[in-house]
């Protein structure tokens, strides 16, 4: 019990600084700031592994997901419309979708000449952090 009290006291002393990075996200401005910090941390950890930064990445990721779950609806519509919407929202072009196939395959998908297959749906779901269901046409 004494150990926990001491840990809480130490945490309270630094909380005004720590809470600027690790705290519940309520506004779009806080969200955008957290996403930028997360991106920076991921870049740093990709260059050199760091368990402390990796823990902070996990925590920031959880806080960001919580905000998104509360405030951002998954896009709905036809799968290709959703894909085009996500491309625009993320400032991407079809050249950036190498994970789903060649330039020709991506073009055929975006022009509705070819349907997405399961591998492509999974890849897009991971890429855009959305449910795979948004890329599956309902019948």
Describe the structure.
The protein has 139 residues and is mostly helical. It has 2 domains: 2-71, no CATH class; 79-135, lambda repressor-like DNA-binding domains (434 Repressor (Amino-terminal Domain)). The protein is built from 6 helices and no strands. It has helices at 2-18, 28-47, 51-71, 79-89, 103-110, 118-128. The model has no long low-confidence stretch (mean pLDDT 89).
In total, how many beta strands?
A: 0
Give the oligomer, counting copies of the same chain as homo and different chains as hetero: single chain
Strand content: under 5%
Q: Domains counted in the coordinates: how many?
A: 2
Q: Which consecutive residue ranges, at least 5 long each, have pLDDT under 50?
A: none
Helix count, per DSSP? 6
Portion in helices: 55-70%
Task: State the distance separating the first and last CA atoms.
Answer: 58 Å
Q: How many strands, what sense, and barrel or not for the largest sheet?
A: none
Structural class category: mainly alpha
Shape, per Cα inertia axes: elongated
Q: How big is the Rg?
A: 20 Å
Tell me the series of helices and strands, N- to C-terminal.
Answer: HHHHHH
Average the pLDDT over all residues and give the rounded result.
89
Give the helices and strands, then pairings.
Blueprint: H1 2-18, H2 28-47, H3 51-71, H4 79-89, H5 103-110, H6 118-128
Short description:
The chain has 139 residues and is mainly alpha-helical. The protein is built from six helices and no strands. It has two domains: 2-71, no CATH class; 79-135, 434 Repressor (Amino-terminal Domain), CATH 1.10.260.40.
